[in-house]
Amino acid sequence: MWLLKYFCLVLLFYGAKAQRRPAICKSPNGEKGTCVPFLECELFKKLLENGANKLSDKQKQFLRASECKQRKDGQFPMSCCGTATNFKD
Questions:
Q1: What order of strands is seen across the sheet that includes strand 78-81?
Q2: The Cα angle at residue 77 between residues 72 and 82, in degrees rounded to 5
Q3: Is the keyword Protease assigned to this protein (predicted)?
Q4: Directed axis angle between helix 57-65 and helix 42-49, to 10°?
Q5: What's the average model confidence in pLDDT over 21-40?
Q6: In this structure, which CATH number among 1.10.150.20, 3.90.950.10, 3.30.1640.30, 3.40.630.30 belongs to the domain 24-89?
Q7: Pairing relation of β-strands 32-37 and 78-81?
Q8: Closest Cα partner for 89 from 45, 59, 51?
Q9: Secondary structure class of 89 (helix, strand, coil)
Q10: What sign does the CA torsion over 32, 34, 35, 41 have?
Q11: Helix or strand (DSSP H, E) at 67
């Protein structure tokens, strides 16, 4: 009986741990990235440090296309965060 309880606890632990791992996604550049909350992406934070009104149309389009999952709590969407700073058309 204790073996069954132990097995169930192990499954619960690994299931919860797997849910916290960011999903792998593909950025608009075709680069492999991770699906994270928008403001947790260093690349996007750096872009916004200069001011959202200073973004080019190409950069704005890239940010919109980076959405990988809509959040239910009404906050910023989940975005595919990579490392590339060259925003392709």
A1: 23-26, 32-37, 78-81, 67-69
A2: 140
A3: yes
A4: 150
A5: 89
A6: 3.30.1640.30
A7: antiparallel
A8: 59
A9: coil
A10: negative
A11: strand 67-69
Measured CA to CA, the distance from residue 52 to residue 74 in angstroms comes to 20
How far is residue 78's CA from residue 71's CA, in Å, rounded to a whole number? 7
Structure tokens at 5: 């309880």
Domain boundaries, the chain: 24-89
Question: What HEC string does 21-61 produce?
Answer: CCEEEECCCCCEEEEEEHHHCHHHHHHHHCCHHHCCHHHHH
pLDDT in tens, 6-26: 554 555 555 444 455 678 999
> Can you tell me the mean pLDDT for 57-70?
87
CA 66 → CA 19, 27, 46, 47, 51, distances in Å?
Answer: 21, 6, 15, 14, 19
